[in-house]
Design brief:
Blueprint: H1 10-27, H2 35-43, H3 51-65, H4 68-71, H5 84-98, H6 115-125, H7 127-137
């Protein structure tokens, strides 16, 4: 999917897109590449941007939207030894919590608030992250 105007065909753009993707992956974490980041960058790009412009726009978006907990993955000694996945699930929970678990009409009625769904996912995917969340709720800040 190409979201910016230009004179080149999609097949002519493929090598450039591949090169951009490889370079961007070296500069940004996987969490920076979302539908929201794509839409934000595309909205600012009436024409295909240079690599520098693309980096600048994505960096600006990422600085405003990255989860706080992903900025400080191991700043808390109690999380030393956690896997990248444990950190990601904890960050995901905190991000969704900060969004107040936003309503989602696409979910079944018993998961509409999505809070139960997020809790279920974290509980199933990361025992360490879930235990930390439970401890924090109990006031232990473990």
């Amino acid at each position: 999917m190409i979201l910016a105007a230009g004179n080149a065909s999609a097949s002519d753009m493929a090598p450039r897109i591949t090169s951009y993707a490889k370079l961007l992956a070296e500069d940004f974490p996987p969490e920076a590449f979302t539908h929201a980041s794509l839409a934000a960058v595309a909205k600012q790009s009436p024409f295909w941007p240079s690599f520098g412009e693309l980096c600048s726009r994505l960096r600006e978006w990422w600085e405003e939207h990255k989860p706080v907990s992903s900025r400080l993955l191991i700043a808390d000694e109690s999380r030393v030894g956690w896997s990248r996945e444990d950190h990601a699930w904890y960050a995901y929970f905190r991000q969704r919590e900060a969004e107040d678990f936003g309503p989602n009409d696409k979910l079944p009625p018993n998961f509409r608030s999505s809070k139960r769904l997020v809790e279920s996912l974290v509980r199933q995917q990361s025992a360490k992250a879930w235990q930390r969340i439970c401890d924090e709720r109990a006031g232990g800040q473990a």
